[in-house]
Amino acid sequence: MFAGVTYSFFIINAAVTTEAFLITKSFLALPLALLIHGVGYLACLREPRVFDLWLTKVSKCPRVRNWRFWGCNSYSP
Q1: Which of 5, 36, 51, 72 has the fewest beta carbons closer than 10 A?
Q2: What residues in the chain have per-residue pLDDT under 50?
Q3: Under 8 Å between Cβ of 43 and 70
Q4: Is residue 14 part of a domain?
Q5: Is 0.90 topped by the overall pTM?
Q6: Is there a domain that residue 39 lies in?
Q7: In this structure, is residue 13 part of a structural domain?
Q8: Residue 72: what pLDDT?
Q9: Which of 42, 27, 39, 37 is nearest to 7 (CA)?
Q10: DSSP 75
Q11: Contact 51, 40 (CB under 8 A)
């Protein structure tokens, strides 16, 4: 953990903020970093590994063709 969020989330936040700064060429990207960090902090309060678990779920259980019909996801055969 780093500053209340996981290290991987902190690195992703730094990358997004850096890209926002390079695209806009403005220091207004710093409040964006604080906003993203705040959202990550609130998400990590209940479960610290929430982003790691979400990435595992997304990579192991992709959307199936009939997702819109059933409204849920399942393991692909």
Answers
A1: 72
A2: none
A3: no
A4: yes
A5: no
A6: yes
A7: yes
A8: 76
A9: 37
A10: -
A11: yes
